[in-house]
Amino acid sequence: MDELLEQFLIEGRDLIAQATRDFSALLRDPQSSAAIDSAFRAMHTLKGSVGLFAMQPAELVLHGAETMLGEARKGTTALDAGHIATLIACLDQTDRWIDEIEEAGELSAQASVIAEGLLVRLAPAGPAFSPDSAGKTSGHVDWLGALRVREADVLAASGQPLTAFRYTPDSECFFRGDDPLAIVAAVPELATLAVLPRDGQWPDAESIEPFACVSILEGLSAAPLEKVSAAFRLMPDQVICASLDPIGEQGLDQAPERRLGENRMLRVDPARVDALGGALGELLVAVNGMAPLAEQAERLDRGLAGQIRAIQADLERVTGSLRRTVSAVRSVELEPTLRRLPRLVREIAEGLGKSVEFTIAGQGIEIDKQIADGLFEPLLHLVRNAVDHGIELPERRAVAGKSPAGTVSLNLGRDGDTVVVQLADDGAGIDIARIKAIAVERGLVSAEETDALTDASARRLIFAPGFSTAATVTQVSGRGVGMDAVQAAVEALRGTIDVESTPGHGTIFRLRLPASTLTTRLLIIEVGGERYGVALDQVVETVGIESSHLRPIGGGIVCVLHGRTVPVLDLASLLGGEARATPQVKLLVTEAGGAPVALRVDGFAQRIDTQVRPRSGMLAAIPGVIGSTLLGDGTVLLVLDLPELAA
Amino acid sequence: MSVRIADGVIWLDGRCLVEDAETLLLAIQQDSEAPVDIAGVQRLHLAVLQVLLVLKPKLRGTASNAFLARHIFSHFDFG
Question: Would you state the CATH architecture of domain A520-646?
Fold first, then answer.
C-alpha cells in the first residue's frame, strides 16, 4: 500500500476517535470550549488530510462541520443537541469513506449525493441552525438529548438517577377540562420543568388561539419511573418517561487528553516484546526451581536452606516486578479496539428502525494485546445481538412505558488480574419459556430436561451450538454465527461469559478475561500418582470433605456445597486412570457451562507463576489440556483445561 | 374575576382558570405596556401561561405559590 495512504488511514482514524470523544463530551456540555476547540482542530486536520486523496465529498462535509464548530468557537452560534447530532453524522460518514478508500481506493458513486444531504443539514440557513431547533423535536429520538443539554446543571448536581418525562397534551385538551400544568404539578419530587412550544416556536401574538394547547411539558423528577408514570396514568398515550443516570457517562468525561511527549515513545516490533516475554518465562521456570532446592537443602543443612530461601525470596520479588513491567509493555488500551463500536451501533440501529443510545465506560483500561485483539469480534456480536434481539422497536417500548430510545452500555473494568466486560441493555430481556421451547424444537434438549432447568441454566441454552432466537433471521445478526461462537471466542481467550436477564427490563452479559496472557498462576495438583497444573483463574475453590458426604444420584455422584448441589467427577477417571476411594475427599471446584462442577483430586501442591506453552505436536491431540509448562527440575507439567474436562 | 385591570396594571389573582386566558389576552393586547402582577396567583391554567409565553408582557411581583415560583415564573424575565 502507498505509504502516504497507509499513514493517512492510521492518522485519519485517530482524528476520528479524537472527534468522537469531543462530541461525546459536547453532548453533555454543548458549551464546553475545550471540547469545541479540540473537535475543531480534529476536523480541520482531517479536512487537510482527506484533501490529499480523491475524497472531495469528504473535504466538503468536513469543511462544513469545521465551519459550524468555528461559529460555535467564536460564540456566534450556541451548539445544541441537533447540531451535535449533525456533526456526529458527518464524522460517521467520513469514517465510512475512509473505509471505502482503504478497501476500494476510491469513494463510491453515491458519495457526492450523501455529501449534499449532509451539507444541507450543516448549512447555516438550514433547519439545523434555526435558533429554535433545540425545542423542536422532529422525532422522539432527540428529546432526551435536548433535555440532557438543557438540564445539564440539574443532572450534574443530582447525585441520584432522575426520571425524565415528556408530556405532549393534544391541542383540544383544554376543551375537555384538562389542565396539563395541574397534572405536572402533581408529579412527585419534581426537580425541573420546562414548558416548550410544540411546533418549535410559539405562535405569533396575532395568531394565538387561547383555547388551543400548543405546549409540551418536559421535566425531571427524583422519583422513580413508576411513580412519575403514575402521575400521568390518565393520559398514558401523551407521555413518555425515561430513567436518566446522572453519573452513568462520567467515564467519557474523563477521556484522557493526549499525553505530552507521546512522540518520544518507542515503536517496537511486537516480536521483540514476545521474545522478552519468552525469556521471562524461562527465568520464572528457573526461579520456580528454587523452592524444591531449598527443601532438599533443609534435610542436609538448615543454615544453607535458610540462605537459599532468602535468595529465592529476592529472586521472586525481582522477577515479579519484571513480569509486571513486561506485562505493561505488552498491554494496550482497549480504546482503539472499541472506537468503531459507536458508529456500528448507530448503523445497526438505523438499519432496524430502532433508536439506541450507546455508552462506553472504562475503555481506558489496559489489557494484554492478545486479549484486546481477540475481544472485538465477540463484543461486536454481543452488541449486535443487544440491538437486534434485546432492544425493542420504539412502538413496543412506548407500550411498555419505556423511552423510545433503548440504551446499551458497555462497561470495562479491572478486578485484580481479571478484566470484567459488562454489556447491558434495557430491552425486552430473555424470555425463558421461549428459549426452552426453541431449544426443544431444535433438538438441543428434551422437554423433560427443560422442566428441571433453573432459569440461569435455561438462559445458558442460548450459548448452545445451533441456537438462534430471532423469529426471522435478520441481516444484522446473520446466520451461522450464534452465541456459541461468542462463547467459543471468549473461552479461547481463557475467559468466561455469563448472562443475567430480567424479562421486560433488559439483559446483562458479563465477560471475565485474564488481563495478562504472559504468565499464568498455576495450582499444582496430584491425581492418580501424577502431577498436573491447573490455571488458578479456572478454580472457583478447593475444598476438603468427608467421603460420607458424597451421595450417588442417578448415574453420578453429588455433594452439597454452600447449600447448592454440585456434581462430583473423578479427575483420575476423566484422565483415563483409576478412581481411588479415600475417607477424605479433596475437591477442586470449577465452572463448566455456567454451573459449578467439583473434580475429585488426590492432593494439592504449591502454586507457581509460570508461562504456559500452548499445546502443540502430540499434545494438541489430547483433549482437556491447555498446554504445558516446565518445572524447575526440568520435568514437563501438563496444564489441564478444567471446564473442558468437566463439560 | 381573576384578571383585573387597575392603575395601568394587569392583576392576576387567585385561581386563573382556562376562561381567563382570553381575558388576559385581550387585556395585554389593549395595553401591551401594562405590567402583569403575578403576586396573587394561586393557580395558573396552562392556557393562561401560554398567553404569557406568547405575548411576553412585563411581569412583576413574586408568586406565593411554591410550584409556580420555582418551576414557572423562574423562567420569565421580570423587568
Answer: Beta Barrel (2.40)
Does the domain at residues A143-249 carry the CATH identifier 3.30.70? yes
Domain ranges of chain A: 3-129, 143-249, 268-333, 335-514, 520-646
Do A167 and A180 form a contact (C-beta atoms < 8 A)?
yes
Neighbouring C-beta atoms of residue A631, cutoff 10 Å: 17
Buried b (16+ CB within 10 A) or exposed e, A149-160: bbbbebbeebee
Instruction: Give me the residue spans of the domains in chain B.
Output: 3-75
* Pairwise CA distance, residues A403 & A206, whole Å: 36
Residue A260 in this model has a pLDDT that exceeds 60: no
CB nearest to A181's CB, from B22, B46, B75: B46
Q: Which CATH class is domain A335-514?
A: alpha beta
pLDDT digits (tens, 9 = 90+) for A36-81: 999 998 998 898 888 788 888 898 899 999 989 988 888 888 888 8
Q: What is the pLDDT along chain B (79 residues), one digit of tens a residue?
A: 689 988 889 999 999 999 999 999 999 998 888 999 999 999 999 999 999 999 989 999 888 888 998 889 887 767 5
Cell numbers for B21, please give them.
Answer: 386566558
CATH superfamily of A3-129: HPT domain (1.20.120.160)
Contacts of B25 in chain A (CB under 8 A): 208, 210
Q: Is A211 on the interface with B (CB under 8 A)?
A: yes
From the CB of residue A2, how many other CB atoms can be counted at a distance below 10 Å? Answer: 9
